[in-house]
């Protein structure tokens, strides 16, 4: 029987804190937008650590990175531990990074124990998971899984018109691999980014799937005029129309509570001058629900709201820019995670993820499941994001055992 490995998490915590210094913000968070200088620096540090751990590094054409630890059976498909290093503009130290560095810690622990696995084991860094710089989210894993073409992915531009293709850098230590390699299985460790595990005093979330997400761009066309002499009834004011739309969109969240989510994260007015009635207002709309039928109803109602608002005043357009249907993960992978949680003795529960993750698209091309650990107050996509070292270590031990159930010793 191979020696039992128990990951204590100290080295994992050190790596997380070292990575958090890259793109560190004044308020204790990180800003490592996809393919930015900070993201490049984070990827270089990850590559260095993986080369030091004896891994071969390859990158695919959309910029996904893979650190490969050979297995005894060179024909066996790799068991991959993946997540992301890119962050929100005011991101936290753990979103995405935890899953990547927990994967590295598994490899380092196998090295320490001088254990070789039957199948190769890899850590994947999926490009542009957040969608904060290049929409849509989960772009790198989506191209890898064939949900988007490589040209579409490389052609996505940020708000300054910079294309991902131009922003990508090839890392000198990385060989090039085509997108879409076959994988044996994919496991992603991630902080929950919500309050459930902490509230229920559970250490591990066995993630069975991910709720559906639809992203829209809303554009309201007004006409610029002077804030002083122009009588209210003469104005075509997109902000007043936005106020009515926003109230109705948020009503959808109440109508389909408790699982519906409605978020308006971006709001822009043009020309954005305090004494000019705007000529245009644009905002993003993010609708989510775990039930496909209800998400469709919310989508249909959003369309109807816009249609009614278009009967008068400032014209509104609602353009769907991304749809990620609800996903159910692979039963055997879910069982491997449950078995690992039971074996390691941590209190666990099954749950559906409210956030999107790279595992959504990778589950289309490989058996996939996820492992959640609590984060403080359920806060994430916030510089105050934090997690307990012992919970992070627990998730890493569960990841190790779930991976070994597939990779074999
Ligand atoms: O939008 C999401 O849920 C993910 O964090 N990109
Ligand atoms: Mn994430
Ligand atoms: Mn995120
Ligand atoms: Mn995510």
From TrEMBL:
Stretches that traverse the bilayer: none
Keywords attached to this entry: Hydrolase, Metal-binding, Zinc
Positions of Zn(2+) 2 binding: 95, 130, 381
InterPro entries: Amidase_Cbmase, Bact_exopeptidase_dim_dom, Peptidase_M20, Peptidase_M20_dimer
UniProt-listed SUPFAM superfamilies: Bacterial exopeptidase dimerisation domain, Zn-dependent exopeptidases
Annotated GO MF terms: hydrolase activity, acting on carbon-nitrogen (but not peptide) bonds, in linear amidines; metal ion binding
Cofactor: how bound: Binds 2 Zn(2+) ions per subunit.
Protein origin, superkingdom: Bacteria
Domain Peptidase M20 dimerisation: 209-309
Residues binding Zn(2+) 1: 84, 95, 190
Segment forming the signal sequence: none
Cofactor: Zn(2+)
UniProt similarity note: Belongs to the peptidase M20 family.
Name assigned to this protein: Zn-dependent hydrolase
Organism of origin: Hyphococcus flavus
């Amino acid at each position: 029987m191979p020696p039992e490995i128990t990951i204590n998490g100290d080295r994992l915590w050190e790596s997380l804190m070292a990575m958090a210094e890259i793109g560190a913000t004044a308020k204790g968070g990180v800003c490592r937008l996809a393919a930015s200088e900070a993201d490049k620096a984070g990827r270089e540090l990850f590559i260095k650590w993986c080369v030091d751990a004896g891994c071969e590094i390859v990158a695919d054409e959309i910029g996904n990175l893979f650190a490969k630890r050979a297995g005894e059976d060179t024909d066996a498909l790799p068991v991959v531990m993946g997540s992301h290093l890119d962050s929100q503009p005011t991101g936290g130290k753990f979103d995405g990074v935890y899953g990547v560095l927990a994967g590295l810690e598994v490899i380092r622990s196998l090295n320490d124990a001088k254990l070789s696995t039957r199948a190769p084991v890899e850590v994947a860094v999926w490009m542009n998971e957040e969608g904060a710089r290049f929409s849509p989210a989960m772009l790198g894993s989506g191209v890898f899984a064939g949900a988007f073409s490589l040209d579409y992915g490389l052609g996505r531009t940020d708000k300054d018109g910079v294309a991902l293709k131009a922003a990508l850098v090839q890392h000198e230590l990385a060989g090039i691999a085509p997108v879409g390699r076959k994988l044996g299985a994919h496991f992603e460790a991630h902080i929950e980014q919500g309050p459930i595990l902490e509230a229920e005093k559970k250490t591990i979330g066995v993630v069975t799937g991910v709720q559906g997400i639809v992203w829209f761009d809303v554009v309201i066309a007004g006409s610029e005029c002077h804030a002083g002499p122009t009588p209210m009834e003469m104005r075509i004011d997109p902000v007043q129309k936005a106020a009515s739309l926003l109230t109705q969109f948020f009503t959808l969240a109440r109508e389909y509570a408790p699982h519906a989510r409605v978020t308006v994260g971006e709001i822009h007015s043009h020309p954005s001058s305090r004494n000019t009635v705007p000529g245009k207002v644009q905002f993003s709309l993010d609708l989510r629900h775990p039930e496909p039928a209800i998400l469709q109803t919310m989508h249909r109602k959003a369309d109807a709201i816009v249609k009614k608002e278009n009967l008068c005043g400032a014209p509104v357009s609602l353009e769907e820019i991304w749809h990620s249907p609800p996903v159910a993960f692979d039963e055997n992978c879910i069982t491997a995670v449950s078995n690992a949680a039971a074996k390691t003795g941590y209190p666990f529960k099954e749950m559906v993820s409210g956030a999107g993750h790279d595992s959504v698209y990778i589950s289309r091309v490989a058996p996939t499941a996820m492992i959640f650990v609590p984060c403080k107050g359920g806060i994430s996509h916030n510089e105050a994001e934090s997690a307990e070292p012992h919970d992070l270590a627990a998730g890493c031990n569960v990841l190790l055992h779930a991976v070994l159930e597939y990779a074999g010793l």
